[in-house]
Write a sequence for this structure.
């Protein structure tokens, strides 16, 4: 039996690697889009149940969410009844339409499972007091499963929550933007476009004004901000004044105050376009991901383990120079300490494959390779060891929380 809990973590994940590879390929070869991950949900929950976790299927009234948990009281009877430290990991498993696992969520799934397995085995063998919780969070690519799971208590009681993401680089301080999604309806009045156009109120005119004004806003907003829109219904027929026009608008920013400001500016534009054309407008905010709040205490501990395993990283300033993408893990890191580093799926040495980028058919293909699996296993080990330190090292966990509680910009 291993006498070192860290070595137990590494040995456990290494031993489980063939099973995790099989689990990954099952999900990879059976891609499902957000909130339709029925096969992945069953595959993962069956696996976790078989490995001794207490599993809640369809958690938080979300059909494809789950929570898998294991708790150990520890060997010190004097500690019974005192607060217990808890670590959480996230597994994502949804795919992209048409592309499949072009973001490699099959690898995120097994990295989280492996990390939870490692901590559980260490707790059992070494009688470590604590709790490990794996959260199966669906629909990251669409409306986000973490936000409703947060709101419904799935993350309560965790001292920290961790996850890793595949990519074309090894990145510690990934800086996704916060993002919001608005679904917009302009309502006008239909009329015959030839016989009596003056009787109509043109909803497409309102949308055209709004679309152009948003385009002009881009020049006056921060270079790191993003706005992108589509018109999903531009009218019913060319000879009918459009009475209903719909659109989707997404907006992104690196910092939360900028995200709020951008949202308010877009709402002002939509209201002004409605007033100018005589239309009414209905706006629904259907999702909002917060900017990621990386905890440096957790991230640097993860770095130390990854570098022990041979990984190499850039400086933090370089990582944060080019913010990109968005994730609902941002909401988690605003609620509690956490991190979201990226591991290169093309090379254990960190060499980038030319032309490889997420959300592509090529990335989906690479997410099924043996080298991608090995990079995920390495990241899983480092994440598991970091999580174990949260349970074992009270001073480390105190410093993690101290950083999180500092006032944020």
């Amino acid at each position: 039996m291993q006498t070192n809990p860290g070595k137990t973590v590494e040995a456990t994940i290494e031993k489980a690697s063939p099973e995790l590879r099989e689990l990954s390929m099952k999900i990879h070869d059976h891609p499902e889009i957000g909130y339709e991950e029925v096969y992945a949900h069953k595959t993962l929950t069956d696996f976790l149940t078989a490995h001794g976790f207490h599993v809640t299927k369809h958690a938080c009234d979300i059909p494809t969410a789950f929570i898998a948990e294991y708790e150990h009281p520890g060997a010190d009877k004097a500690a019974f009844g005192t607060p217990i430290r808890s670590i959480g990991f996230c597994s994502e498993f949804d795919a992209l339409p048409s592309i499949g696992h072009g973001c490699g969520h099959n690898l995120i799934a097994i990295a989280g499972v492996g990390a939870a397995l490692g901590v559980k085995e260490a707790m059992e063998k070494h009688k470590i007091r604590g709790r490990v919780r794996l959260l199966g969070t669906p629909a990251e690519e669409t409306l986000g499963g973490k936000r409703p799971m947060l709101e419904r208590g799935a993350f309560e009681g965790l001292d920290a929550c961790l996850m890793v993401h595949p990519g074309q680089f090894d990145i510690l301080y990934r800086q996704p933007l916060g993002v919001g999604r608005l679904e917009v309806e302009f309502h006008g009045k239909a009329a015959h476009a030839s016989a009596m156009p003056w009787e109509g109120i043109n909803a497409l005119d309102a949308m055209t004004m709004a679309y152009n004004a948003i385009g002009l806003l881009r020049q006056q907003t921060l270079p790191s901000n993003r706005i992108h829109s589509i018109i999903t219904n531009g009218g019913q027929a060319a000879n009918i004044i459009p009475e209903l026009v719909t659109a989707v608008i997404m907006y992104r920013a690196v910092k939360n105050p900028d995200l709020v400001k951008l949202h308010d500016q877009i709402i002002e534009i939509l209201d002004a376009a409605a007033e100018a054309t005589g239309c009414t407008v209905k706006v629904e905010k259907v999702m909002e991901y917060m900017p990621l709040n990386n905890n440096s205490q957790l991230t640097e501990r993860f770095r130390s383990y990854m570098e022990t395993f041979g990984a190499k990283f850039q400086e933090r300033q370089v990582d944060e120079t080019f913010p990109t993408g968005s994730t609902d893990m941002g909401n988690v890191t605003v609620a509690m300490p956490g991190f979201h580093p990226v591991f290169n799926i093309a090379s254990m040495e960190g060499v980038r494959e030319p032309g490889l980028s997420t959300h592509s058919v090529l990335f989906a293909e690479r997410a099924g390779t043996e080298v991608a699996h090995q990079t995920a296993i390495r990241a899983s080990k480092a994440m598991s060891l970091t999580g174990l330190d949260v349970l074992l090292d009270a001073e480390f966990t105190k410093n993690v929380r101290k950083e999180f509680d500092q006032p944020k910009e």
Notes: The longest strand covers residues 178-187. Residues 5-176+292-405 form a domain with the Aminopeptidase fold (CATH 3.40.630.10). The mean pLDDT is 95. The two ends are 48 Å apart (CA to CA).
